[in-house]
Specification:
single chain, about 475 residues, alpha/beta, Rossmann fold, five-stranded mixed sheet, 18 helices, about 10% strand
Length: about 475
């Protein structure tokens, strides 16, 4: 019983209640015709006592437990129970009815508060359920043993309903050509996962779509100079941004059924890698981009992905522990699944970054140049995941490119916000490793504080006077 009553409350719900109570109280004082000279001071003690009681009762009824999903009936049940008990408490306060205006202010505030909270709980639940996109429904993909094609066959297909793919015979085709452009389909991940389930190991999928740059040229050619960019901005928001936002995605697909959506080449390549394919070849012909991909593994069980302005990236931290590093998004959706492909095709450029990284969008290049994308990493610094000066937190893929001795040396210390890269300005991966090795050896020899103090001023000097910029 004690375990049910004692729990760590979800602070966001408490802050919401306090904020709504305060605003409701101020609204009631503003609307009601009160004659007190200082109504705020007169009614404040009463409202504070009622508010404290509400917070305690809500805690005891479990309203402040963290709920993994919004679709929880007991959220509203706990709200009704808490409100009923609070009203009973308020009605039994003898001093509440000494002045009828006391009861009027208190009851009006409580009614307004309950109506607001109930509307928010119900409204958020409805909005959440509606916005949970049916375009990419989570589905379980069964593990399977290696399967070879029974014979060499090619299937040419135009998909209208993705559910019909499940009716195709499994492992009978070692190549499937999807002739319907992906940018006209609703549920691209579901389609790729469905083909993955019936392709044999090493089987190939060929698909096509009209990419973002082609659609942009065609769209701008349709309108005169004066209005073309305004029309394109509206079209881009509708067909590119709305399908990506959680609150607008469902509405967009209900209206358009996924037709005419704007897809970048990076996103389609990333979706294929995410769904268990390896990119074999790509080309562009007659305004369409064609991609040939090979099945190398099962599609993941989860097909819903969200892409907000702030992303969480898995990085290697101290003692090989995985840490979540926060950044502003600078890449196209599904770019995180393309790191191996980009490295194999384009290799590294000066500074250790990928040469011609197609994953980074135009806004992202600007943000990276001036470190704007790294501002959310201050949260990691405050949480203690990173220190101010230290080696850059790396992904597992990039970390694997380092020498084994440097990997072990790196993992003895926390990564940092300001890497020694900005002090030494190395050009190649080997030079970057030597720069980090030199810094880490100094940390071992002279201690963290002394070494970081020296490197902090070197980095500051490089940024301010040598114009060193992120790449």
């Amino acid at each position: 019983m004690a375990e049910k009553l004692l729990y760590k409350p979800f602070s966001r719900w408490i802050v919401n209640d306090v904020l709504i109570l305060t605003l409701g109280y101020l609204f009631v004082l503003w609307v009601l015709p009160l004659h007190a000279q200082e109504p705020f001071r007169k009614y404040l003690p009463v409202i504070i006592s009622i508010s404290v009681t509400w917070l305690i009762v809500s805690y005891l009824f479990g309203r402040y437990r963290y709920h993994a999903g919004i679709d929880k009936g007991y959220v509203r049940t706990a709200l009704l129970e808490s409100y009923t008990l609070l009203i009973c408490f308020a009605l039994n306060l003898p001093w509440l009815f000494i002045d009828n205006r006391y009861s009027l202010v208190v009851m009006a505030s409580l009614m307004l508060f309950f109506a607001s909270v109930f509307f928010i709980v119900t409204g958020i639940r409805f909005a959440y359920l509606y916005a949970s996109d049916p375009e990419e429904i989570p589905q379980q993909t069964a593990e399977r043993a290696p399967v070879a094609a029974t014979e060499h066959r090619i299937l040419y297909r135009q998909t209208q309903h993705i559910s019909s793919i499940a009716q195709l015979p499994a492992f009978q085709y070692d190549c499937i050509v999807e002739q319907t452009p992906l940018d006209t389909l609703r549920g691209i991940n579901r389609l790729l996962a469905a083909y993955n389930a019936i392709l044999p190991d090493g089987g190939e999928l060929i698909c096509r779509f009209k990419d973002k740059s082609t659609k942009k040229k065609e769209f701008l050619a349709q309108y005169p100079r004066g209005i073309r960019w305004i029309r394109y901005a509206i079209s881009y928001c509708w067909h590119r941004i709305f399908p990506k936002l959680f609150l607008t995605k469902r509405f967009y697909y209900d209206v358009t059924q996924g037709r005419h959506r704007i897809l970048s080449k990076t996103e389609v390549l990333g979706r294929l890698c995410y769904n268990g394919y390896e990119i074999v070849d790509e080309c562009k012909a007659d305004g369409m981009r064609y991609i040939r991909a090979k099945r190398i593994g099962n599609a993941p069980a989860q097909h819903k992905r969200r892409y907000g302005p702030i992303i969480s990236l898995n990085r290697v931290g101290k003692n090989h522990q995985k840490i979540q590093v926060y950044k502003f998004r600078t890449m196209y959706p599904y770019s995180e699944f393309l790191q191996g492909y980009i490295y194999q095709k384009y290799n590294l450029q000066e500074g250790g970054k990928f040469n011609h990284d197609i994953r980074v969008n135009g806004e992202g290049r600007f943000m990276r140049k001036y470190w704007i994308d790294e501002l959310p990493m201050l949260t990691n610094w405050l949480r203690g995941d990173l220190k101010l000066v230290g080696v850059r937190p790396l992904s597992q893929q990039y970390f694997g490119l380092y020498d084994s001795d440097l990997q072990e040396l790196r993992c003895q210390f926390k990564p940092g916000l300001l890497p020694p890269y900005y002090a030494d300005n190395p050009k190649t991966l080997e030079e970057i490793q030597e720069s980090e090795r030199k810094y880490l050896n100094l940390c071992v020899k002279n201690g963290l504080f002394a070494t970081d103090f020296v490197y902090f001023h070197k980095i500051l000097w490089s940024i301010l006077f040598k114009r060193v910029r992120s790449k």
